[in-house]
Every structure is written in C-alpha cells, then in structure tokens.
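Quick one - inputs below.
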Amino acid sequence: MNHTPTEENYIKSIYHLQYTRDKVSTTLLSAEMKTRPASVTDMLKKLRTKRIVHYQRYKGFTLTEAGNKTALNIVRKHRLWEYFLVNKLGFEWDEVHMMAEELEHITSSELITRLDKFLGNPAFDPHGDPIPDHKGKIRVIKQKNLTVLPLKKTATVHSVKNQSSAMLDLLNQFKIGIGTKLKVNKRFDFDGSVEIKIDKLPATIISKLVAQNVFCTI
Amino acid sequence: MNHTPTEENYIKSIYHLQYTRDKVSTTLLSAEMKTRPASVTDMLKKLRTKRIVHYQRYKGFTLTEAGNKTALNIVRKHRLWEYFLVNKLGFEWDEVHMMAEELEHITSSELITRLDKFLGNPAFDPHGDPIPDHKGKIRVIKQKNLTVLPLKKTATVHSVKNQSSAMLDLLNQFKIGIGTKLKVNKRFDFDGSVEIKIDKLPATIISKLVAQNVFCTI
DNA sequence: AATTATTTTTAGATTTGTCTAAATTTATTT
DNA sequence: AAATAAATTTAGACAAATCTAAAAATAATT
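Output:
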C-alpha cells in the first residue's frame, strides 16, 4: 500500500521507539514527532484502518507485520541515502540526517535497487547502523558500548548511537571513528569515565556519556 | 523564500510555458498541472503575495525576476538528478522523469552543490537540455531540428524534445542518440518526412514528427 | 452592438494533518 | 477506596490544496 511522507514518518518513529520497548504510548510518539498527543491519536486511527498498527484506545500500540515491513523499507532508504551522501558526495556524518530524512520518501523502488547496487550493496550506514536488504532482512551484530566492553581486549568501533555534530567533533578529537581499533584500560567509578588506548596514541580518558554512545565488536 | 513542492511545481510549469509565449493563461496552466482552472486561480493569488508572479485577474500572468530565479533553480535540480540517474545509476532517458520530479524538491542547496561537483559540473542533461549553473545562468546553444537543418551538412544531435519511451524506442531503432553525427539528404514534401544519413549506415527516412523533435548543432 | 461562447474568478465544500480545549479513561496517592 | 494526577481521546476549528457550481469578465460571432 501507499503512504504519505507524514504517515511514513510516523511509521518510522514507531519502529524506532519499539526497538527498546514492546509497546509505544501516545505521548512518547508525540514527543518524538514533535506534535500534540491529539494529532498522534488521529494518525493512529488512520494507520489502524490501513492495518499498519495494532491499536486499542488507551492501550498503546505496536506495528503490525505489514507496518514493520514498511518501516524497514523506509529505514533501508534512509540509510542507503546516508551512505551515498557520505561516501559519494563527501559529507560528514553529522550533516546528512536531514537530507536523508527527505530522500527516504522518494517512492521509486527501482531507484533504491539501483542505488544499492551503485553503492556496492553496503551492509552498514556511515554511523554503523545496519542497512536492511530489499527483503527487510537486517544484519544484527553483537556490539557492546565502552562502558561494558571487557577490559584490555582489543575491539573495533562499529557504530555510534548519538549522531550529532557535537559528538562527531569530540570523536574526531579523540581520533575515534568507525573501524578504529581500541582497548579499554580501566573505568573510573567516580564519574563513570573510561580510559581507552588506540594504537600508538597515548591513552586518553573519555566521559561516561561518550563511552555509552560508542559501540564495538570484539 | 521557501516554497512547498506544489508551489514549486506551479512555478516550474509557468517557467516552461513562458518559454514559448510571453504570457500564460489560467486554462493553459491548469491543463499543464492537471488541475481545474479554479485551483490555478487560488495558487496564483498565493504566488502573487509571495511576489513570484505578476498577475492581474483576467489578464494572465508571468514570473517575476524572483520567480524566474526560483524556477531556474528547480530546473537545475531536476536536470542534475536526471544526469545522476542516467550516468551513475544506469537508467535510460525515458525512465527518469518521474523520479527527477520528486528529487527536484529536496531542499538542501549544499546537496546540489556537491552533486553537481560529483557529476563533473555537467552542462547538459541526458536529453540535451541545458543545466542552469548555481547562479541560474543557462547555456543557450543554437540548434535546429531536422525539418529546418541545411541539407547535406554534417550536424551533431544535441537534444531531443519529446522524451517519451516511444520516442526513445524509435531513435534507438534509427541509431540516433545524443552526440550522433548525421546529414539531412532530402525532405519529402508529401508528408514532411526526411532522409538522413548516419556515418556508414544506409540512409533512412524518418517521419516529420520525429524530425521535429531531434535538434542538432552545426 | 447585441448575443453567444469561452475564460476566469468567486463562493462554498472536502481532505489531510495539525491544533486547542474539554471530556474521558487509566494510574497514582493519600 | 476516594481523590488527585496524568495520559489519552473526542469535538470542533484551521490552513493548504483541491474540487464543483455559479457568477463575472472577456472574446468571438452574428
């Protein structure tokens, strides 16, 4: 079925919110969408008739099978475009979100098939997030953030959760990027900060907040 | 100023209609936009307050200086995306129009600047139409279609007006593409058809309708 | 110049996505 | 368990872009 860009944005937001909980509430989604709860209720009724969400009034909601498939397709488009913007047009991570937010609503599926091929069928976007394939299959990678990674073991930075310019700035400073190999030397109880060691660089201490956002594979 | 995709579509259509006349009428634009004249009137009032069109009721309308600049920017985006779709993603001419129609409304100007660079600052789109530069400057090329081209002089196909699949089909058959060198041997008064000669291929006769759509530089 | 035809505009309605304010339901406290 | 608080929904309104039907202006014809 066909969805308006607005509907797609709701579907995508529900998808992301559902990732860390099993039911989504009206207020939560309204905060995410920067609209009023009443608007969310209206949209939910619409999405329910389109069989995109399971929804009973006052009881929260989740995506249906079809809704999930739709969401994965939008996420796929978003991440492929981000990959394009960074790896072909030379943008930085922190610059591409808004553009991908628009590009993800371009309808042609043939375009996406060809873009995917043109980019070499990438499995991960520039932030390290997995790109669903054309069937909606998504590669799940076991990753741990720097606050829980085992000590003294070399790990590879795989993704960064917070994708703001402020974060990128800091990571550049520390010379941390996707693919960087590093070790966690120790953790400090006082503020939760973490000492890391990259290659031949001197060990440095990064804040808990940064550590929580950097995810690695072992 | 900022415009909705719908506004942009109106602006672009006025631009194209104005190309061959000096004032545009409500009915003409409504036919182009596939809406009712009443809708055009509504939009014109809106565009007038935004100082995009000169418009007096019952008297037709034209783009203002600002409107023209806006139109050129939309055309620029449309044609750059078409170039991308054909030359990077491998689409054929006749497949790209709808996609470019969506892509042209992506707002980021930085994206277009980078796309332009990535594509090598092309001057013409896959149909041979000129791509306005970032200032809106458009390279005008003297071209003549095959019904008026001087006889027996070698000319280079530069653009094709009708961009339908049906046309592409026929041109492929005749081995005519952008860049093809050819001569017009003679014209037939009876039906306006034209005999052309390409390279070592045997001379062939193309219909008046095709001849009118193929434009060459001498 | 008067009549008829065509074009254009106005008036009022509709759909989508939003809002506010009030009502209802559920959750939390006392 | 009542009372209060918080979350959610309903009701009614609004802006954007469209429509239909009717009115007004312009153009074409007799």
